[in-house]
Design brief:
single chain; 213 residues; mainly alpha; elongated
């Protein structure tokens, strides 16, 4: 098996995952590809497909930083009203309120903490823009948070990579075996149904002198 990502070119893997991270950091919801999951996939690709770990970590980190900065700039211009309208549609008013309290109380340490608390990572960047947090203050918390986030989830992918591949291969074997069993059962069922149909016709011919329709 050519890895869990289907044997994609390593550069394509890096670009695809970095692109997804950038889009999510800009504030576009990607429920099918959350950042922690795609980073773990990147780690698995490092462990199983020869993706350069330094290139991957650098690209993923830069994509995350760039996306977060863009999200801050967009919300700084759009303002709190626009953010709360989007929050109401997505039902995320609570996380935004928590991120706002954290940043107002703790400054760059609030950015660091908010970026690492599940459910607050993207909203932390948005709130930083709404409250017009200075870029230097925002970056002081953003940079170490991105380093920790990318490092932890990529590392998890590297650690579980071989195990994940073995599990997928085992699952594939079970699926193939299950498919064979189902096909055999269907063939037996069709054969049995035909035999019963022939028995009924023969009985009708014997008793009534004609074939049943």
């Amino acid at each position: 098996m050519n890895g869990i990502l289907g044997g994609l070119d390593p550069v394509v893997v890096v670009l695809a995952i970095s692109g997804l991270l950038f889009i999510e950091e800009c504030g576009v919801p990607l429920p099918f590809a959350p950042g922690d999951l795609v980073l773990m996939l990147g780690g698995i690709a490092i462990a199983t497909q020869g993706v350069n770990p330094v290139l991957f970590v650098v690209a993923a980190s830069l994509a995350s930083i760039a996306g977060a900065l863009i999200a801050r700039e967009i919300l700084k211009r759009a303002g709190a009203t626009a953010l709360m309208k989007v929050a109401a549609r997505l039902h995320v008013q609570g996380p935004i309120d928590r991120a706002s309290r954290l940043l107002r109380r703790a400054g760059w340490l609030g950015v660091l903490a908010g970026r690492l608390i599940p459910g607050l990572r993207i909203h932390t960047s948005q709130v930083a823009g709404v409250i017009a947090m200075p870029r230097r203050t925002f970056l002081a918390g953003l940079l170490p948070a991105v380093a920790i986030y990318v490092g932890v989830f990529t590392g998890l992918g590297i650690v579980i990579g071989p195990t994940a591949i073995a599990a997928v291969e085992h699952l594939q074997g079970l699926l193939v075996a299950g498919a064979v069993v189902v096909m055999v059962a269907l063939l037996l069922g069709v054969t049995q149904a035909r035999l019963r149909s022939n028995d009924i016709r023969m009985l009708a011919q014997t008793r009534y002198g004609y074939f049943a329709a």
